[in-house]
Give the backbone structure.
Amino acid sequence: SLLIPPLSPPVDLQSHSSASSFPHLEAKIRQTHSLARLLTSYAEQLLQEYVQHQGDPFGLPSFSPPGLPVPGLNSPAPTRSGLPTLERLQLDAAALNSLSPLLDTICHLQADLNPFACRLLRRLEDASHQSRALGSAVEVVLGVLGAAPGPPGPHPILPESPGVFLVKLLGYRVCGLYHEWVCCTEGDLDQLMQEGLG
Amino acid sequence: MEAYFYSRLLSKTGGNKRMSSSKFQWLSSIIFLYLVNQAHGQSRGVPHDLNCITHNLKVWDCSWEALPTINHGTYEICVINSSYPCIRTEKTHFEIPALTFADHEIKINSIHVSGNSVIKFILNERNVSLVPATLQDFNLTADFSTSTLYLKWNDNGSVFPSHSSVIWEIIVQYKEKMEVATVATLNTTLIGKDSVHHWNWTSDIPLECTPHYVKIRYYIDELHFFGQKEWSEWSPLRNISGPPVKENYEVFPRDKVVPVGSNMTFCCVVGEPVLSAQFGKESYSFIRLDRRSVAIKINNITVSPSSGTNVVFTTKSNLYGTVVFAGYPPDIPRKLNCETRDLKEITCSWNAGRPTGFFGPRGTNYILYERFSGRNVTYGRAEEHMNAIHQLIFQMITGQEIYNFTLEANNPLGRSEAVILVNITQRVCPHTPSKLIAKDINSTAIFLYWHLSGNFANINLLCEIEINATYSGQELRNITVRGLETSSYHVYMDKLMPYTMYTFRVRCSSENFWKWSKWSNEKHYLTTEGIPSKGPDIWREWRADGKSVIIYWKPLSLNEANGKILSYNVSYWSEEKTRYLSEIPDSQHKAEIKLDKNDDSDYIISVVAKNSAGSSPPSKITSMEIPNEDIKVEQIVGIGNGILFHWNYDPNMTCDYVIKWCNSTRSEPCLTDWKKFPANSTGALVEYDNFRSGTRYNFFLYGCKNQKYQLLRSILGYTEELAPSVAPNFTVEDTSSDSILVKWEDIPVEDLRGFLRGYLFYFEKGEKGTSKIQGLESGRSDVKVKNITDITQKTLRIVDLQGKTGYHLLLQAYTGGGIGPGKSMYVVTKENSEGLIIAILIPVAVAIFVGVVTSILCYRKREWIKETFYPDIPNPENSKALQFHKSICEGSSTLKTLEMNPCTPNNVEVVETRSVAPKIEEDTEIKSPVTDGPEEGSDAEPENHVVVSYCPPIIEEEIANAGGEEAGSSSQVIYIDIQSMYQPQAKPEEELENHLVGGAGYKPQMHLPVTSTIENIITADDLEKTAGYRPQTNVNAWNLDSPDSPRSIDSNSEIASFGSPCSINSRQFLIPPKDEESPKSSNGGWSFTNFFQNKPND
């Protein structure tokens, strides 16, 4: 659903890079796309690992809580499909950069709740690093393409002393957002490759 | 009460005079006055129903009833005979200080426009009610985290006399319907001053879920107050409503930690309808608390997972939840132990016991508290593992040896503790010694150093040193050293072996042993060399030619060599001279000395081993032996790994005994090894790694007298006997018709592999290549075996064999170790010529003899033979028998030849053979047509025995004429059973004679066919056969076939038999029948050699 055909004009990569740097740009985009695809699968695994440690009904198939608002970070908007690819990538990079501290926070909260869930904690920690890495990689691509990274969004704020249940819900929400944004990034990079390299 | 006042009033006004009136008058007066007063007062608006209460026992508050008409008037209240001033008031009540316990007259003067009226009351404390003041001021607070209400109030005790008992009653109500949650009663005692009282109560419903209301009243039980005591009024209702419901906090209680097994109520406060409630994975039906709140009640909560148990309420648009953590309070710490490694810090360790089920912030915290010093250390967030060891480190306090530790464990559900009192100097388990160093002093002593950190200056250390040497095993030495402050320690290690690789390691404890430290790392150290402790073990052997002697020595063992042997010095001397051989390197362990054995000089040969530290003591041996002529070679078999020798104790043997041995198959000089045994020994077990089973060794036992050896015994021996490895090689030296001579050779010693015990010789008759002798099946009777136990025997003759017969031979040797393989051979014995000749001659001689005898007998019996076989045949032309037919019919009496009464066949026996098989025992009688039944005497088998009555009319007449006695008897033709004819006839000749005597003579047989009866029976062919003369020598009638031959009993032969020689006087066949039962000759397999078959095989 994230790979909606672009309504905006395609990106001309040739015009954004010199002949000598084009292979480098192409490689960078492919590399970033591969990273996004890899992180998409990691994000799915993280979400599965997360719900396993939160107790029922988190692990039940029917569990579908309403999207908890996270100040400063939203789900990818459906209307973003109308935006140019580069703008979408700017949003992706901003969201990924915002997700990194959120994942850190969730990791710390889970360390209290599940101190022996080593794999979950490791995945959360890795996801924080990987989110930041992917955001930076997208920013690099944007820089090469001449599109300045978007302004940093407001730092997400989690409620103070939210209660354990809300902590679990927030973690679920953050992991879900991470998955959504990584998927979006992968789709947008795929779009970029189709437009510019294909 | 008013009546009481009046009664008091009247009693006052009436004075004592009335008291003496009759009771009736007194009572009547009271009633009357009361009624008058009532009527008067009410009619005029005077006070009535005076009522007094007190809230504090100090002031009485009295009030009365009055008509409204006087409401605007004024009252003057005076206590009669009291110092209290009168009170003027417009109200209908007044307050006066508490009066003494007596009747007091109260006068109330109502002053109004219409006039004054006075009324008096008698007031006593008994008429006053104690009603405590309503508790207005109390403090109600709540702890929402624990759903606990806290109530605090002042008892106003300063107002009341002390020691008054107070009963407090508190009611808590909740929910929309104001259900009574609890009713509590408290008893307190007033202490004469204000006291604050507390009461708390935990609701089963979180306080946030629904408002909780509280009210309180009390009752003072003052013993010295004689009035009526009543409960105070209820205090105003106070309520606790939950804190403002924030977003996302709709489910209560939040993050509660409860013990396992608790019952809990969870509520959800939301403005929208709740659709479902879930605890963990279980759904629950909820109960409505009020219009905004629903709850579920969970009983007996089980232990939660690490992240807690989720409680979730679902509405149409959202999901609300909380988490509960159910677990256990901390278990009492188990196996609390405190010890020190360095006397600087104390390590206390323990086992947490039962897991609490809590982790992270809810996990168990531990505090180690030392009572004497008042110091403590903490340990937080203990990880929960069953039997996990936790530990805390407590810094020691200078000068303090006794420590009283209390370990407290706490978590949100409770706390527990364990206590231990230790003298830390007795709980020393030092660190692992390190930096182990060895320094040599001499070849048998070293200094061993190690480092041990810790403040052990005030104690002694007990250290254990483990010494391992390759060849001497393990040794432990314990030493006590004075403790130092983090220093190196060293110890003198003696009694070591020179030039030995040692492995040292150390562990320590305090002198007051508590625990050993861990072993230090191993230290390998090689001690320096020392001089060899003894000379090498030597022996000497003379060359066979006696021209030189070889001196052998064994390398010194490591603990004897005390270093690396560099060389050996060999010297020899006699009384005359001393010689030295050049230095012999270590690799060589023998030396040859040119000496002449025939020389009478006896030399002493000395060998000395040298290493870098010096030379060993010399080992000496004389060159000559003490002769011993009386030597016998013995045999001995070992016990597997060695050979046990015994000898008698000989006091003359002053040095030692030596057993030397060699492989018997080796060439000279015979010396493989030797061993020496003490002079007082009487036996020895000689073990040698290179002893091989099945190998013959020569052992020589020497005794030593005055440093000279004498050979005592020579012994051949095996450590273990084996079966021979090869078969004895044998050949056939000679064969005859009945014997074989075999000869074999000795088996070489190396192949014999044991002491030869004998041979087994097997032989078996049979064709070549068919022998089963190799299998040597036990119990085979056809395999003969000879056990040859005389091992000197080298030949064997096998006799009683059959000539020209093949034999399989097999020869095996056996030892104490078993039977060896066999060598087999196939031999054919020679032909027996004498037997052949005998076999030919004997039958020939017998044949000749039989022929001669037969000839003689035939000659002597020639007449009989002629008479029997070749009788004279009369000329039929001259015979009157030709007139037989006619003469008979004419009844001529001149025909003498026909006077054959005895031969008159009045009974014809017909032999009837119905089958081809020669069953001829049965007589068959041809019945005459005139014969009615079977003849008597033939009833044995009447159905087969047909008797034919035959009575030729002519003969019948003749017979009738011939003898009246036989006239009655029927004339019959009897067919004689030929077999019966051949029944044993004891006296054939006599029978013949009897026939002759009985009128027998030649009886021509041709008379029979002329009978008409016969004609009817016999076919035309038969007639031809039977007609005319039948010479009795007719070969067809009695040829070579026996009478019972099928031919003779053929159906056609009935008539033929009729014409057989039976018709003559004799019924006997001269040629005996073939006897089937007679033994058949086995001529098929017969040969001349069969003459020898009757001999047994052997």
